[in-house]
Amino acid sequence: MQEILERISDTIEYKDGEVEIKNINLLREKVIDELVWKAVFGTEEEKTFIRKLIRLIAQKLNLGPSSIYDLYVAIGKGEVGGFTVPAVNVRGLAYDTARALFRAAKKLNVGAVILEIARSEMGYTNQPPDEYTAVILAAAIKEGYDVPIFLQGDHFQVNAKKYKENPQKEIDGIRELIKNSINAGFYNIDLDTSTLVDESKPSLDEQQKENYKVAVELTEYVRSIQPKGIEVNLGGEIGEIGSKNSTEEELIAYMEGYKKLLKPGLKGITKLAIQTGTTHGGVPLPDGTVAKVKLDFDVIERLTKIAKEKYNLAGCVQHGASTLPAELFDKFPKVGTLEIHLATEFQNIVFDHPLFPSELKQQIYKYLDENCKDERKPSDTEQQFYYKTRKKAWGPFKKEVWSLPKEIKDVICEELQKKFEFLFEKLNVKNTKDIVKRYTKLVKVDVVDVVSKKEKFEGAD
Fold first, then answer.
1. Is pTM beyond 0.85 here?
2. Longest CA–CA separation in the chain, Å
3. Closest by alpha carbon to 145, among 32, 12, 17, 53?
4. pLDDT score at 365
5. 270-289: per-residue pLDDT in tens?
6. CA-CA distance, 347 to 351, in Å (whole number)?
7. Distance CA 77, CA 73 (A)
């Protein structure tokens, strides 16, 4: 590592676990590009050291990572509001996509935005928590973004089948993921135990019992390991995304059970994910286009009202929304939606762009034919099959996508930036930079090495 430090000694000085930035312009113009490449594609020793180094640089620049907890508490109290926080899942072309997002955020003075990755996405995109953190922070450094960054573990989901076979083993796996993620700077985590809801039970409390019981257990674990001075922001979920729409009664059953089991004085969740009619990624039609969704905004409005007034939560969360029609997005702030999760449309912009190399796309499709054939339904057309499975090419083809010619990436990322700007405008997070700085704080933490085992992450897609 000494060789790397000597090569960038005009830019950064590293000594005894601390960094001094000697030339911020050189860092942004050149050095951070080299560092992030090695953080992703270097040797194991290089990855470990440089991911830590990027964290230290970001901390020096007051970028975080940070928790959105205090802002959400303020929203729950009615001190601020009127906007829906976009939570963006960055799956592929991660550094360039994040740069496009930060350019859009700077242009529109946005502070209320979350960058997230789900448990399952970590697996098929080959982005463990510490890598994801390094890439997102490097993108913020590159673009001169100067607002605390909220990294979120999306759908840290319990696998219902494995839980039934061996509950403790499955919970231990989630705990390990949570620990690694918090060590990597994920100070916002969605505890998705909704897979444990059992609708065959006679009462709503019994149906939700395993859901809220395991959520409480994981809440208590998070509070026991979170860094001093940081309240990790947590969310729960009452209905699996893609199933029937959530009801007020289900929300009440979950929250009453959760509150009853949570230790007195312990801070709990600030938000609840609900089902309103969407599915992750949308439903592809035979020609590869996405079916129209019957999204019930009334469900969001009614459940958000109960969540805030009865339980002092910040509100409800909308999943599976990126492929919705453009004209719907400005409705989310109007009905009080707290947070909206967006992923597939950004993937579509990259894969479906006219400049995305056709030869590389054919290699990807060949890989999917060979490695995802078990996921192909007899009724699937080629377009449907590739649309549903191409997300699983991000990991195996990560280096090829990152290595696309600059002139191609620039054009694709210009379109991504326009999409981010559109969403920021519609979700009304424009000019939230000062609000975020007022209600969030940057806490300096000891940056530790994160051990990311090469495992298959299971969970929501």
1. yes
2. 68
3. 32
4. 97
5. 999 998 875 544 444 465 55
6. 6
7. 6
